Amino acid sequence: MKNITKIALVSCVAGLMSAGVALAETVKVSWAAEPYPPFASPDSSGSWSGWEVEFAAAVCKEAKLDCEITPVAWDGIIPALTSKKIDMIISSMTVTDERLKTIDFSDKYYDARAAIAGPKGTAFDATPEGLSGKVLGVQTSSIHQRYAEKHFGASVSEIKEYQTLDEAQQDLAAGRIDAIQGDSFALNSFLKSTTGECCDLKGYVEKDEAILGHGIGIGLRKGDTALKEQLNAAIKAIRADGTYATITKKYFDFDIYGE
Amino acid sequence: MLSTNTLPAVSSGPTVRSVKPFAPIRYALVIAIVCLAVYFGRWDWIGDYWMRLANGIGVTLLLLVSSCVLGFALALPLGVVQATGPRLLAWPARAFCTVIRGTPLLLQLWMLYYGLGAVFAQFPEIRASIFWPVLRTAWPYGLVALVLSFAGYAGEIMRGAFAGVPKGELEAAYTFGMNRRTAFFRIWLPRAVQRALPTLTGETILQLKSTPLVATVTVIDVFAVISKVRQDTYLTYEPLILLASLYIILTITLTRLLRIFEARAIRR
Amino acid sequence: MFDLTLLSLSPPGWGATLLCGFLNSVTLAAGGYLIGLVIGIGGALGKLSDNAFLRELCDIYTTAVRAVPELVLILVLYYAGTDALNQLLTVLGFASVDISGLAAGILVIGVVQGAYSTEVLRGAILAIPHGQVETAKAYGMSPLLTLRRVTLPAMLPFALPGLSNLWLIATKDTALLAVVGFGELTLATKQAAGTTKDYLLFYTAAAAMYLCLTLLSNLVIKLIDRRATRGLAVMHA
User: Fold this and answer.
1) Which strand ranges, in their side-by-side order, compose the sheet holding A26-30?
2) Domain extent at residue B219
3) What is the rounded average pLDDT of the residues C187-205?
C-alpha cells in the first residue's frame, strides 16, 4: 500500500513538473476536462481513455508530432487556443461557419448527428412541437445550444445550459430536466450506462447545416497552416492504413467517419 | 471560500474603501480605460443583452440579500449555543461552522446540487412529491449553499460577539429584574450584534463576491449572462471588462450603503 | 450506501487521482500565497511611501482586486491576463513566454492574494511603534537594512493573524481553478464523480481532504503564533 502511495505521489509531482516546463517542440493537444464517453473520459488512474484519445495519439504519431495532453474547460477551450495555452483542440468539436470566424479546422475526422434524449415513460418527437413546454438541457457553447435556441427557443419552457454534457445527463436522470440535445454517439453511450437506464433516444433533430456544421475536425489557430497540412495528411494516412478502423472497432460496430 | 474567519485584523480588512474625495490619478485611469475600451472594443452586443444583464443583476442582488438575511438568522442560534449552550448543542454547532469554513464553497455547492441530484435519481418518490416543481429548479440549491456558507462564517463571528459582551452588563440586567428572555433580547443580543457589525458588513461584501459561483449550477445570475455573451460572441476581453466593472460598482455601492447603515446602528 | 473501494489508492479506486489533485491544490495555494506575500510587501511599502503616484497605483490595485469576485478575477487573469502579458512582451520586443497551466494558476492566485496581503502588511507596519523605526534611522541604518532588520521582524506578530487567515483563504480559492479546467482537487473530484456517478461519496471525500488541510494549517498557525508573540503579553490582553 505504501509503495502504491509513493508511486502515485511521484507520478503526481512528475506531472506537475512537465506542466511547468514546456519543451520547445511539443504541440499541446487539448480536449475538454470532463467525462465525454466514448470519446474521452478520465479513468481512476488519472489518465484519459476513449476513441478520441486513441485517435489523437495515432494522428500525433503519424504526423511525427510530440504531443502533450493539456485538458481545459470546454467553455474556455477556444480562448485557450487563441491565447496559445493549447495548440490543437481534439474534443469532438464540430466545424461550423461561426467557429471558422475565430479559429481554423483540419479536415473532418468523424461525423455525428444531433439527437434528443428523454425519459422512457413519455413519448415525444425531436421537433419544436414535441418539445413544447419542456425544459431542455444542452452543453454550453455547443452546436446543440445554438440549434436549440434557434429551433426550439420559442416552444420549450426553458433551455438550460450546462458546463459539461455529463452534468446535463445527470440532471436528466435526476428528472430536473425533461430532455437533452447532444451528439448521438455520446447520448447513446450515456443511454447504455446505468444512469442512462431512465431514458431513451427520442429522435434526430432536423438538419440545419448552418448551425450543425460540417462534421468534426481538429480545431487550430488561424495561420497555423503548416500544422493543418500535417494533420490533414495524417488523418488521410490513418484512414488509409487501417489504424482508424482498428481504433473505431474498439468502441463502435460501424464506421463513424460518415460519408 | 471567499470569506475570512473571525480574526479581526482581516475580517474588517477586505472591505473596500470608498473612493477618496480627491483622487485625480484614479479618475484619469478610469476615464482612460473607459475610452480605450469603447474605442478598441466591440460593444454592439450590449443592445441584445442588456435586458438579460439587468435581470442577472437582479438575481445576484436577490441571492445576496436573501442569503445574508437567512444566513444571519441561522447564525444567531449557532453563535448563542457555541457561546453558552450545553455541550450537546455547542459541539454540533461548532462542527458545522468548522466544516463550512474549512471547505471551498464551490465544492459545497456542487455537493448539494449534483449529490442531491444523484439521490433524486434513485428515489422516484421524491419526484412525485409536491415539492418537486421547486426542487427541480436550480436556485434553491444555490440559495441554500450561500445561506449555509454565510451562517457558518457569521456563526463564528457571533460566537465571539456573544462571548465578548461584558458579564457586568448582563448582571446589571438581572439586577434590574429582567428575566433571562428579556435580558437576552434587550441587552445581550443587541450588544453582541453591535459588536459584530463591522465584521458582519465585511462578510456581506464577501458574500456578494461568492454569488457568481451559483452560475456553475445553471442559475442565471449576472455572471452567467456574461458567460453567455462570451460564448455567443467569442469575445475575450469586453464581456469580462464589463463584468468586472459591474461588480466594482456593486461592491462600492454596497460598501457605502453598509457604512451608512453601520454608522446609524452604532449611533443608536 | 457508499462503495468505499472507489477511494482506494490503486485502480479501480480513485484515491490516487484525488490525492494528486490535492497535491496540485496545495502547490497552487503555496505558490500563490508566496507570490501574494511578495506582492504584498511591495504593495504595503508602496502604499506607505511618500510618492503620491505610487500610493495611488497600489490603492487602485487593492481596491479593484478586492471589489471583484475571485471567480471573475480568475477568468480575467487566466484567459485575458496571460494573453495580455504575451502581447505586451511582443510589443516590447521580447519573445513571448509559454505560460503553463500551473504557472498561470499560481500567478492568478498570487495576484488575488497580493491585494489582501498588501492590506494586512500595511496595517501591521503601521502598528509598529514609531520609535523603533526612528531609532534604526538614528543609528544610521539604510532604508533597506531598516526594512530587513527592524520593520519586517517587528511587524510580524501584528501581521500573523491576517496572514494565517490569508493562507486558509488561498487553500480554498484554488478550488475556483476547477472552473477553468485546472486539475486540482475539486475538478479531480468532479471528474471522478461524473465518471462513476458516485457524487456524494467523492464530494464527501474531497471535503474531508480540504478540512484536514484547514485543521492541520490551524495547528501549525497556532504554533507559529505562540513563537512569534513571545514576550508580547500585551497582544493577548
Assistant:
1) A66-69, A26-30, A88-89, A216-220, A104-110
2) 58-267
3) 92
